[in-house]
Amino acid sequence: MKKKLILTFAFILMFVGTWQSAHAQSKPLEKVRLTVPAKALTFVPHYFGKAQGSVAKEGIDLEIIVMRPPLGVTALLAGDLEYTAAGGLSFRAALKGAPLRTITFI
Asked: How far apart are CA 60 and CA 82, in angstroms?
């Protein structure tokens, strides 16, 4: 009895997982532009997530753009980018009143 219950539960989890992945693939990916200050080891998780497809599994079509931080923050404030990985300059801009928020650090 216990074994049947475990098998049933495993089947349900497998079915739900398959349905969720099929459902997620049917939606169009959201285009997100991220600027990084340089191709450096610090930003490997962004490149790795894109290359391995884990970012796309979350519904995001990530475009990584290498750009000097002053230009990246300016483009972010103008609405041409969604995110920047230039932490230092972004903090200074936020302290001067720019409407920026920090989401996460790697």
From this structure: 12
Highest mean pLDDT among 13-17, 57-61, 93-97: 57-61
Mean pLDDT, range 26-46, rounded to an integer:
90
CB burial readout 51-63, b (16+ within 10 A) else e? eeeebeeeebebe
Q: What is the mean pLDDT of residues 64-69?
A: 94
Rounded CA-CA distance 62/35 in Å is 10
pTM over 0.85: no
Q: Say which DSSP state 58 is in.
A: T
